[in-house]
Design goal:
This protein is an alpha+beta fold. The protein contains one helix and four strands. The chain has a four-stranded mixed sheet, with helices on one face.
Length: about 70
């Protein structure tokens, strides 16, 4: 399962969601905090979405962090 995490600079949080779990959207101040919230959340939401519970659910978090770059002025 793949989840995407976007950094919201203004709110200072990471927002995670997944197309594979339509009801999943959550946020945390750090990527580690986001992972901690996702571990129990994913199996529960999958069950609510009608997916039979099957042991562990592996997931991958793809982090997108946007930045700008400028050429150094000599």
């Amino acid at each position: 399962m793949i989840l995407e995490a976007d950094g919201d600079k203004e709110a200072r949080v990471w927002v995670g969601d997944s197309d594979e779990v339509p009801s999943l959207t959550t946020e945390a101040e750090t990527v580690e905090g986001l992972n901690a919230k996702l571990r129990p959340m994913i199996p529960e939401l999958r069950q609510l979405d009608g997916v039979p519970r099957q042991g562990e659910v592996a997931f991958k978090v793809l982090i997108r962090r946007f930045a700008t770059a400028q050429r150094a002025v000599a």
